[in-house]
């Protein structure tokens, strides 16, 4: 793949992490292919299609949250990245640092996202 494609994929990941902080579910879903899948976290039920993925991201909309991309690697039509998300659940501020993998389709849309973390990885801030 060309450098341009890798740059576009990296831009999509940067936008994804930014939208996790301040975007709506619709903003996030716009990055995904119609038939995309999300497994977040790995081992949980796989969400398939934009409507199912939208329902998943709806849970973020009412949370105060901050994100920071810490590592990003793009190779061909795949990417792996780590980021930090800090959010408040109830009265407890929590921090999570998942490692996600993404596969892109020919249009540059996310066709698969898998997030690696366990509940024990969430730490109080």
From TrEMBL:
Domain of life: Bacteria
Protein name: Steroid delta-isomerase
Organism (species): Mycolicibacter terrae
């Amino acid at each position: 793949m060309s450098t341009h494609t890798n740059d576009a994929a990296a831009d999509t990941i940067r936008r994804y992490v930014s939208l996790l902080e301040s975007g709506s579910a619709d903003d996030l879903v716009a990055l995904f292919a119609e038939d995309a899948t999300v497994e977040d976290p790995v081992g949980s039920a796989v969400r398939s299609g934009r409507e199912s993925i939208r329902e998943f991201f709806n849970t973020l909309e009412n949370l105060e949250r901050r994100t920071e991309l810490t590592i990003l690697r793009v190779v061909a039509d795949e990417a792996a990245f780590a980021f930090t998300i800090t959010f408040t659940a109830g009265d407890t501020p929590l921090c999570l640092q998942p490692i996600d993998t993404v596969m892109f389709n020919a249009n540059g849309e996310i066709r698969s996202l898998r997030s690696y973390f366990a509940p024990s990885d969430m730490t109080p801030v």
